[in-house]
Amino acid sequence: MISVVMMQKVTCGCAAGVAAAFRAPVGGVLFALEEVTSWWRSQLMWRVFFTSAIVAVVVRTAMGWCKTGKCGHFGSGGFIMWDISDGQEDYSFQEFLPMAVIGVIGGLLGALFNQLTFYIAHWRRNYLHKRGNRAKVIEVCIVSVLTSIISFGLPLFKKCTPCPEGDAGIECPRPPGMYGNYVNFFCANNNEYNDLATIFFNTQDDAIRNLFSAKTIHEYSAPSLLTFLVMFYSLAVVTFGTAVPAGQFVPGIMIGSTYGRLVGMFVVSFYKRLNIEEGTYALLGAASFLGGSMRMTVSLCVIMVEITNNLKLLPLIMLVLLISKAVGDAFNEGLYEEQARLRGIPLLESKPKYQMRNMTAKEACGNQKVVYFPRIVKVVDVLSILRSNNHNGFPVIDHSRNGETLVIGLILRSHLLVLLQSKVDFQHSPLPCETGPLPIRHNPTEFVKPVSSKGLGINDIQLTTDDLEMYIDLVPFLNPSPYVVPEDTSLTKVYNLFRQLGLRHILVVPRASRVVGMITRKDLLIEDNEESAAVELQSTSVREDEHEDRILFRKKTDAEQPLLGLLLDP
User: Fold this and answer.
1) Which end of the chain has less Cβ packing within 10 Å, N or C?
2) What is the CB neighbour count within 10 angstroms for residue 216?
3) Per 3-state DSSP, what percentage of the chain is helix, strand, and coil (rounded to 5)?
């Protein structure tokens, strides 16, 4: 339960971040659904939706308050970040081929980006970052100096270009200290601008807006865009993973829109049609690179539509996303999956590996000895086991009358820590009480809270010598119905159970020898009885005789199995 609550908070936080950064509340919800969670529930859906809605209202209110200039650049513009609603009205069948090419380029460059960042992050993790925090600071300083030299040095070698004619409402060159188009970077003539400096010295929001715009068809030259693409792509690869809070979403849009506009310039010159806009291809290029790198489809499609306010381009965005994702999947995994694998995060993929089809649950357990607790355990044994391993859950076993070992439940590590800390449930006798287990004497609220949130560890628990010689009856605190699979269950099915149910543990037991009942979907339908105010199961398999119902229940409790292994997601 604790891990589920934490997962919900992380999911809501990710959705809120995307909704606030790109002003795309629906895209934030879909981002959390597609990329963050591996276990989705309808209850989590409305919570994430509510969080994104609150973020949208707060951002909108802050923007309205900041329009007077109190917040600097934050208050400018509307809720749409890059409005291209006045872009290309229609597209012909002949344009689908270059648009598909954009999807292929995005998949190739995205897969290459993931592979390069993986190698560099592996080198940082195993060599550079082991030298301490000073090495991280020096690395950031070197990358910053390198970025500054490239950003200021390359435009010096670019010749200035005369300001284009016919761009009404756009001042060329722009006044010093202003944001927008056309930067005069050491140009001798006041009616000239440096197109390479226009990309480097604008904010990334303004640069993307210029690349997406349909009114700046003559602003950039192909050599400048190609130079910027090569250098910015290289800097993004080197910068990603450094000890700075640098994301990849906006740089990915910059990279994709650059080569997308290059393709658009080629299409305009090849087809010689006036209604083709280079900004449309820049948008498709941005979507293709993000799809080829992050491997998102639905959420990314909605985000691009929300931030550009152009629903007419939705089919084209879907096309390039599907192509770029298919091309990228042929080489490696997505950016987030690669980084999670590098850091050893146990993130389960959407599909199990092909080798799992020929493996069983018992084979996955290996030859490792299962760490378990008896029903009544000595305090010193609990302390020793918790100190010797970091398992999150432990099976609890008991013995039947004929001496057979049976699994009676699963107990969590956090619960054991609470029991050791409170000491109120210690007992002197190693035998269970004849009238049943001892009453729970600790505070239930204290027992439910996660111990890790208080900073309490196993080394923080202080026990006396007398405490170590006492016993704990674990029956009142364990989960009596953990998820169990037979030993010959396909490992693919076990994998799907972990993914679809959000599990952390599965107990592996011998194959059951008898069937005590069968439940169908109809058996789970519940109807309220208005006369008796009771709840009855509407099923043909439920016995009408109360005695038979009690026998069936008793068979289920008696059908315990000895434990063979424990599969867990750490």
Assistant:
1) N
2) 20
3) 55, 10, 35
The answer to whether 81 and 22 have CB atoms below 8 angstroms apart is: yes
| CA 510 to chain CA centroid, nearest Å | 36
283-316 tens-digit pLDDT = 999 999 999 999 988 999 999 888 888 888 888 9
CB distance 261 to 98 below 8 Å? no
Residue 188 three-state SS: coil
Amino acid at 117: T
**Are 231 and 326 found together in one domain?**
yes
**What would the pLDDT profile of 3-42 be if each residue is shown by its tens digit?**
566 677 888 898 998 888 888 899 989 888 887 776 677 7
Angle at 78 between CA 75 and CA 80, to 5 degrees: 130
Tell me: do 455 and 380 sit in the same domain. yes
Q: Does 99 share its domain with 234?
A: yes
Tell me the residue range of the domain where 545 lies.
484-568
**Contact at 8 Å (CB) between 564 and 508?**
yes
Phi and psi at residue 279, in whole multiples of 5°? -65, -30
Short-list 567, 395, 570, CA closest to 480: 395
Cα distance between residue 419 and residue 474, in whole Å: 10
pTM: 0.76
Residue 386, CA distances (Å) to 76, 371, 423, 461 in order: 56, 10, 16, 11
Into how many domains does the chain fold? Answer: 4
- In this predicted structure, what is the pLDDT of residue 546? 40
232/288 same-domain check: yes
CA–CA gap between residue 340 and residue 410 (Å, rounded): 29
Task: Give the model confidence (pLDDT) of 410-428 as tens digits.
Answer: 998 888 888 888 788 888 8
pLDDT digits (tens, 9 = 90+) for 535-565: 555 544 444 444 444 333 434 444 456 666 6
